[in-house]
Design goal:
two-stranded antiparallel ribbon; elongated; four-stranded antiparallel sheet
Length: about 150
């Protein structure tokens, strides 16, 4: 039997997803859960980090619109820029110890660099694993390398 349900990867499931008019949970799923995720992880939240001088920083992004006396007060009339601020990261940035270990490994092994951390995808996979009672087959369909 094949069944379908929608699931929001970015949020903790307050209500279990529903399929065939019943809630899906570790108690109601008797078979392993198979997830076919075609380009799903590209669309989830990612945290940006810098590593410099053996310290980790989070890139805090914010939009900035230049004030202008001459331009009318419309969103499109004023030049918009982005700002990145470096905010130091402590040893326990995330509530998840495994994620913190990965951040620490990046800090100690990568040298001076910047990287994205796929926090939305990792939280979503963790939520799905919990929903499936640890029985999850994940089939991601992503192109992880540049063309050329």
């Amino acid at each position: 039997m094949l069944d379908f349900a929608t699931f929001d990867l970015e949020r903790e499931p307050a209500d279990h997803p529903r399929a065939f008019r019943r809630a899906l949970s570790a108690d109601t799923l008797h078979n392993p859960l198979v997830l076919i995720a075609n380009y799903v992880f590209d669309t989830t939240a990612q945290d940006a980090f810098w590593v410099h001088g053996g310290r980790s920083y989070r890139k805090a992004w914010s939009p900035h619109v230049e004030p202008s006396e001459e331009a009318p007060r419309t969103r499109d009339a004023r030049p918009a820029h982005t700002r990145y601020e470096r905010r130091p990261v402590g040893d326990e940035y995330y509530e998840d110890e495994a994620m913190n270990r990965v951040l620490d490994a990046y800090r100690t092994r990568l040298g001076n660099t910047s990287f994205l951390f796929p926090i939305g995808a990792l939280k979503g996979i963790r939520n799905l694993m919990h929903l499936a009672g640890g029985r999850l087959l994940l089939l991601p369909g992503q192109r992880l390398y540049p063309r050329g």
